[in-house]
Design a protein that fits this description.
The protein is of the alpha/beta class. It has two domains: 326 residues, Zn peptidases (Aminopeptidase, 3-Layer(aba) Sandwich), CATH 3.40.630.10; 188 residues, Glucose Oxidase, domain 1 (3-Layer(bba) Sandwich), CATH 3.50.30. The chain contains 15 helices and 25 strands. Strands 1, 2, 13, 17, 18, 21, 22, 23, 24 and 25 form a ten-stranded mixed beta sheet that branches. A hairpin with a 2-residue loop joins strand 19 and strand 20. Helix 3 packs across helix 15, helix 11 crosses helix 15 and helix 13 packs across helix 15. The longest helix has 20 residues. The radius of gyration is 26 Å and the shape is elongated. The two termini are 25 Å apart.
Length: 568
C-alpha cells in the first residue's frame, strides 16, 4: 500500500522541489456521508445468501499451502523488492503470466498478451550543462547550487519575496511592494502556509497561491529557493543523490497533463557561499536570511541592488523504461451478462531496495502486497477450474502502486476492457498479518486479528454492494468485518491510498480488504515468515465467494452514493 506522505513533507517538497515529472497527483474527494460505527462485527444482513456446494468447493482450491509457496517465491531476495521498474518486478509479472497461461485464462493486455505496457520516462539532472553566473562569477552545479529538475534558463535582476505565499483569505501577499516582472525571485522555503493553524491548512491551501506559482503568475523568469533545513550539508548531500538518479514518471500522463499545467519556473537552490554572494551589501546578509528561513521568521520583500544580474540554466536528460500491468479475463457463461465484469486486483510491486536496517537493504514486501498478489493468482486459478459465473471476471495485477497508484490510474484511464462494463472492483492489499495475543507493540495496535479484516469502502458508494458483502460473509466463514476506516474523518486516508481508488473515481463501487498497519510496513522485515497463511486463506476464500455472488447476481450493484469529484 502506498505510504501516506505527511503534509509537512508534501508542502516542503512542493516549495523546494517543483518538478516536471508527473507521478502521483493529489486529488481531494468528498465522500457521501455514511453511518459510521467502529464495531468490528458486521450488522445483521436483511437477507441470506445461498452458497452452493460447487462454489464452496471451488473456493477451497485456494489453500494456505499454495499461498505460502507462491509468496515465498515472489517476496524472496531474488526479486529485490519488486520496485517499478526493475528486473524483479518483470520476473514477477512473467511468473504470474505463466500461471495464467497454464490455467487457460484469456489474455487481456496489449496485442493478445497478458501485459498492458506502460512507458516510463525519467528526468535526471545533467550537471555538466547546469550552472549559474552573476556579474562574471560562475556558480557550479553540485558545489554552489542544486536545482529542481525542471529544464529551462532564466536571467534578470533579483528580488527577495520572503516566504512567497499569497493567501487572500488571510490577507497575506509576499509580493506587496515589489515588481517581479522579468526578474529572478528569491524565496525562503516555508514548511506550511503562514498564519494557518494545522487544522485549517487544507482549506488555506485551496485558497492560496504557492510561492512558485505566485511568482510565475506575476511574471518572474526564475526562482532561487533558500532551503529550510538546519543541517544544510546533510540535506545537500541527500538531495544531490536524488537529483542524479532516475526519477521516473508515466510518459503518457506527462504528455496528457502537459496542456493542463503551466510549465514550472526553472528553480535553483543556493549553497551558503552562493547565498552570501547574492546578498553581499544588501539590507540582510546571506547568513541572516538562512537563520530566518530556518526559523520561519522571514521579513518583507525587497529589491536587491540593480547592479546585480543573475542568469542560470537547468539541463536535464530523459531516459525511458517499460513496465506493465498484468491482465486476464475469465469469460462468463451468460450470453449477455458476460459482457460485464467483476474486477479483482492487487498491486504486485513494492519499494525495491533502500536504506539498510540491521544489514538488510531489500524491502521484500511480503504482506505489502505480496499477500494480495498471490491471493489474486490463486483466485484466478480457482475460478478457471469452475463453476463459471454469469459475468466475466477481470483480474488485474497493477504495477507502480507504490509510486503513486500509477498502474491502476493507467488501467482505468486507458482500459483494455470497456470500463463502464465493470460492475465492481475488489482490491486485496495486505491481508497476511495478524495481531498476536499479548502484542503490546504500539505499531501493531491497528493490526487485525486472525479472524478479522478491515473492509474499506464497501458501503461508501453502493448500499447493495455492502449488503451483499455482509450476506456472503455471514453465510460462509463469518469473519469479523471491521469498518473502522470507513470513517470519513480517517486521518490515515486509507480510502485514497490503494488501487481501488482509481476505480472508484470512475464511478465503480469497490471493496478494499486490508489487515492493518504494522511494525514491518515498508521495512526490510516485511518477510514471508511472518505471514498468517491461515488468515490469508480465509480472507481470499471470502473474496472468491463474494466475487462469485457478484458475478452471478441478476443485476449489477447500484451506485447510490457516488463520489463527488472536484474539477481538475
Amino acid at each position: 500500500m502506498k505510504r501516506l506522505s505527511l503534509l509537512g513533507l508534501v508542502l516542503t517538497a512542493a516549495l523546494v522541489l517543483p518538478t516536471a515529472t508527473i507521478g502521483a497527483r493529489v486529488r481531494t474527494t468528498r465522500l457521501s456521508t455514511v453511518a459510521f460505527s467502529p464495531a468490528t462485527t458486521a450488522a445483521k444482513a436483511s437477507a441470506s445468501s445461498v452458497i452452493t456446494a460447487a462454489v464452496r468447493e471451488a473456493a477451497e482450491r485456494v489453500t494456505a499451502a499454495r499461498l505460502k509457496e507462491d509468496l515465498y517465491y515472489i517476496s524472496s531476495d531474488a526479486m529485490a523488492g519488486r520496485a517499478t521498474p526493475s528486473p524483479g518486478l518483470d520476473a514477477t509479472a512473467k511468473f504470474i503470466a505463466d500461471r495464467l497461461k497454464a490455467a487457460k485464462l484469456k489474455p487481456a493486455g496489449d496485442d493478445g498478451t497478458y501485459f498492458q505496457r506502460i512507458e516510463l520516462r525519467s528526468i535526471k539532472v545533467d550537471g555538466s550543462q547546469t550552472s549559474a553566473e552573476m556579474n562574471g562569477k560562475t556558480f557550479k552545479y553540485g558545489d554552489d547550487l542544486l536545482v529542481a529538475p525542471t529544464p529551462g534558463s532564466a536571467s534578470g535582476q533579483l528580488v527577495y519575496a520572503g516566504h512567497g505565499w499569497v493567501i487572500k483569505s488571510k490577507n497575506v501577499d509576499a509580493y506587496q511592494g515589489v515588481d517581479v516582472r522579468n526578474k529572478i525571485v528569491i524565496i525562503s522555503a516555508a514548511a506550511a502556509p503562514p498564519n494557518a493553524a494545522p487544522t485549517e491548512i487544507g482549506k488555506v491551501i485551496q485558497d492560496a497561491e504557492s510561492p512558485v506559482s505566485a511568482a510565475q503568475k506575476r511574471g518572474a523568469k526564475g526562482v532561487v529557493m533558500i532551503p529550510r533545513y538546519p543541517d544544510l550539508a546533510q540535506w545537500w548531500a541527500g538531495r544531490r543523490r536524488v537529483l542524479e538518479r532516475d526519477r521516473f514518471g508515466v510518459a503518457r500522463f506527462q504528455d496528457r497533463d502537459a496542456g493542463d499545467t503551466p510549465s514550472a519556473l526553472p528553480t535553483i537552490m543556493p549553497s551558503e557561499a552562493m547565498l552570501d554572494q547574492l546578498f553581499a551589501g544588501e539590507q540582510q546578509g546571506g547568513a541572516e536570511l538562512r537563520r530566518n528561513t530556518v526559523a520561519g521568521t522571514t521579513g518583507p520583500a525587497f529589491d536587491l541592488a540593480a547592479t546585480k544580474s543573475l542568469s542560470f540554466k537547468v539541463s536535464v536528460a530523459n531516459t525511458t523504461a517499460i513496465t506493465q500491468n498484468v491482465v486476464a479475463v475469465l469469460e462468463g457463461k451468460d450470453r449477455e451478462l458476460k459482457k460485464e465484469y467483476v474486477a479483482i486486483g492487487a498491486h504486485y510491486d513494492h519499494v525495491g531496495t533502500g536504506r539498510p536496517i540491521n544489514g538488510d537493504a531489500i524491502y521484500n514486501g511480503a504482506d505489502d502486497d505480496g499477500s494480495g498478489t498471490v491471493a489474486v493468482l490463486s483466485l484466478a486459478e480457482a475460478f478457471a477450474r469452475g463453476p463459471r459465473p454469469k459475468r466475466s471476471i477481470l483480474f488485474v495485477w497493477h504495477a507502480a502502486e507504490e509510486r503513486g497508484l500509477w498502474g491502476s490510474e493507467y488501467f482505468t484511464d486507458y482500459p483494455t476492457v470497456p470500463l463502464n462494463q465493470v460492475v465492481a472492483q475488489l482490491n486485496i492489499d495486505m491481508i497476511g498479518r495478524s495481531r498476536k495475543e499479548g502484542d503490546a507493540n504500539p505499531k501493531n495496535r491497528g493490526l487485525t486479528g486472525p479472524d478479522e479484516i478491515y473492509v474499506i469502502g464497501s458501503k461508501l458508494m453502493s448500499t447493495e454492494l455492502g449488503s451483499l458483502s455482509e450476506r456472503v460473509n455471514q453465510s460462509y466463514l463469518n469473519l469479523k468485518l471491521n469498518y473502522f476506516y470507513d470513517n470519513p474523518n480517517d486521518s490515515e486516508r486509507l480510502f485514497y491510498r490503494s488501487d481501488h481508488y482509481n476505480y472508484a473515481r470512475k464511478g465503480i463501487p469497490i471493496i478494499f480488504y486490508f489487515d492493518g498497519i504494522h511494525e514491518d510496513y515498508h521495512q526490510p522485515s516485511d518477510t514471508a515468515d511472518k505471514i498468517d497463511y491461515q488468515k490469508m486463506e480465509k480472507v481470499a476464500r471470502t473474496v472468491f465467494v463474494t466475487a462469485y455472488e457478484l458475478s452471478d447476481a441478476a443485476k449489477r450493484p447500484t451506485v447510490d452514493k457516488p463520489l463527488q469529484m472536484p474539477e481538475r
